[in-house]
Hints:
Blueprint: H1 3-13, E1 17-21, H2 22-35, E2 42-47, H3 54-63, E3 66-69, H4 72-80, E4 88-90, H5 97-106, E5 109-112, H6 115-124, E6 130-135, E7 157-158, H7 162-172, E8 176-180, H8 190-204, E9 212-214, H9 232-250, E10 255-258, H10 262-265, E11 269-280, E12 285-289, H11 298-302, E13 308-310, E14 318-324, E15 332-340, E16 347-350, E17 371-376, E18 379-384, H12 389-393
Parallel strand pairs: 1-17, 2-3, 2-10, 3-4, 4-5, 5-6, 6-7, 6-8, 8-9, 9-10, 12-14
Antiparallel strand pairs: 1-11, 11-12, 11-16, 13-16, 14-15, 17-18
Helix pairs in contact: 2-3, 2-9, 6-7, 8-9
Amino acid sequence: MTNQDLLQVANEFGSPLYVYDAAKIAEQYQRLQAAFSKIKDVRIHYAVKALSNISILKFLNSLGSGMDTVSVQEVRLALKAGVAPEDIIYTPNGVSLEEIEEVVALGAQINIDNLSILEQFGARHPEVPVCIRINPHILAGGNSKISVGHVDSKFGISIHQMPLLIRIVENTGMNINGIHMHTGSDILDIEVFLRASEILFDAAKNFDNLEFLDFGSGFKVPYRENDIETDIEELGEKLTHRFKNFCKEYGRELTLIFEPGKFLVSEAGKFLTKVNVIKQTTSTVFAGVDTGFNHLIRPMFYGSHHDIKNISNPDGKFRFYSVVGYICETDTFANNRRIPEITEGDILAFSNAGAYSFSMASNFNSRYRPAEVLWHNGKAHLIRERESFEDLIRHQKIVDLEANPAHVEE
């Protein structure tokens, strides 16, 4: 998409606005497929939590993607998008047994990550195939909030609890058909990922009826020009060799599954905002925009970096701005960022806004959540309408209460 395309979309649908480029999503999907093309059966299950718009799910499913879900609601979204139940993996954390049983009834593959629920489920449903999520105790991830494979993580069953896990499986007679791991997001060191994979292979040897091994995802994408990223091609070459050898050792071909979210949609997303005010203080020039961390929380939550371009004046003289939102809290997208000269009314485009952006948006300050647009074959398709005041109060119940006057003793 060009700057002119983005300006046209902003003019048509207003701001703030999320715009997703279908061609970039397809490019990333095909790149991951190509990296592992030498493995007989590779399946990509898109991580729905990254961006859960039904039109995005339908588009990814049209490319051949299954879905990785973490809630019964995401399972239902995937089904609504036309995804076959058998192409949905459900990997929750800390949910009730009742929710897991609800997902089983919908036909999705379940993935259990704690011994308590595993034992309860196995006692009640030994006939249902179950995948097990292990914690390899390998730390990966660009931020403590997105590193999930370490020793203190709430995710997964510790590899040191394998004897207990095996005892539960034997006592219940349950069928374990897959082993899963996820070390965290923003993986850079391929050797660390491969070490975790060896732990997954060792765990898999304890089960005779496996159909697949699920390696999660967490592949890093570039956030700025010349940024480092996961070398998918190198990982594909090295993990393919090791996976094939393991299948020979195991005695049959298994399916290899990845669960990318950010890798597929992050770079495809742009977040368009309009500049409301330029405010000069004694030391800073603020560009105040018509949005805030209620719409894009990642910079305040993770300290994440999003490149910001002034698409209304891309060739202007560079100046330094702090780009801030309109929320009544500290609400900063960028500090002293070098951006082409900004004037009030300009449209700014935030990069890497496809993953964990709209999906984490809220109505804080009673602001409406923005619209979403999918750019496909040179045309803008509205895939979510901007919220209205009616949406804001739709589920509120207004109760007429009469204030009680203070009791005064005579």
